[in-house]
């Protein structure tokens, strides 16, 4: 099952809000439905958002035809999709790639959107193999490699297979994977809910750890490498990923173990010169102060809730894409 796909005039997604307790799908036939799914994280993860952006252009055209929108109305709907989440480069990339074909007609737009999905699936398998090769070389020895990861960069974050968790899958298939430590990833628990769900289905030995314990476990020698995904990679190699990634990079550097970022080429944004130029989404108080409908902080307390942090390039051992391996810590730049 693909995380996101096209079926008979609808975008079909796995509703990630329902996991791990229920595996359910949603059919989205209107732009507003897709935008809502993106904003509430029913569909999430940089590559999956690229696919959502591509398919969102098709939805806008179809809804415009049904409801009699003019060209400006269709363009406004496409922009709503593009701007639904500001940090992830892939969302805007997917929209812009497919929207460029709108003048050629709906058939060309749909064909390009479907190509985005197929290319993502192939790219992530290539990332998994390249990343596994890299870790086997960096970690040495013949034994299993213990991996620490953060958030969810698995099949649920992509069309299929995964980026960081795609590397884990490839190591697992080769019989070279040890225990995986998965940060719970506060405040929305993508690690505990989603990564653990994927690892369990794969039959991988894993432990869920609280975010604050992650750097200490790295320092204590509980892992051989940290492998994460990315939501945007700047031209200089700075990496934006889910909040809580930066402390793991600091811990890995101190411990002398690899910190590897696995992401498709489409996540690299040549128009963003460095991490300071990456817009960081603030998702508001509710996700931090309320759990399962119950407020856990005093009424007078507010929260800061940045959804992402930025890891400087000099802490990144390698960026693995479907096409190449870049070594930012050695001064190599993606662009």
List the helices and strands and how they pair.
Elements (H helix, E strand, L loop, with lengths): L3 E4 L2 E5 L10 E4 L2 H9 L6 H22 L3 H12 L6 H11 L6 H34 L5 E5 L14 H10 L3 E7 L6 H13 L3 E4 L4 H6 L5 E4 L3 E3 L4 E4 L2 H11 L3 E4 L5 E2 L16 H4 E2 L2 E2 L12 E4 L6 E3 L4 E2 L9
Parallel strand pairs: 4-5, 4-7, 5-6, 7-10, 8-11, 10-15
Antiparallel strand pairs: 1-2, 2-3, 8-9, 9-14, 12-13, 15-16
Largest sheet: 7 strands, mixed
Give the CA-based shape.
globular
- By DSSP, the count of extended strands is 16
Individual helix count:
10
Helix content: 25-40%
Q: Indicate the CATH class of the largest domain.
A: Alpha Beta
Which CATH-level-2 architecture of the largest domain? 3-Layer(aba) Sandwich
Any overview of this molecule?
- The structure is a single chain.
- The strands form four sheets. The chain has a seven-stranded mixed β-sheet with strand order 6-5-4-7-10-15-16. Strands 11-8-9-14 form a four-stranded mixed β-sheet, with helices on one face.
- Helix content is 39%, strand content 18%.
- Helix 2 packs antiparallel against helix 3 and helix 3 packs antiparallel against helix 4.
- By secondary structure, it is α/β, with parallel strands linked by helices.
- The chain is globular and about 60 Å long.
Q: What brief labels describe this structure?
A:
single chain, 335 residues, Four Helix Bundle (Hemerythrin (Met), subunit A), Rossmann fold, 16 strands, 39% helix
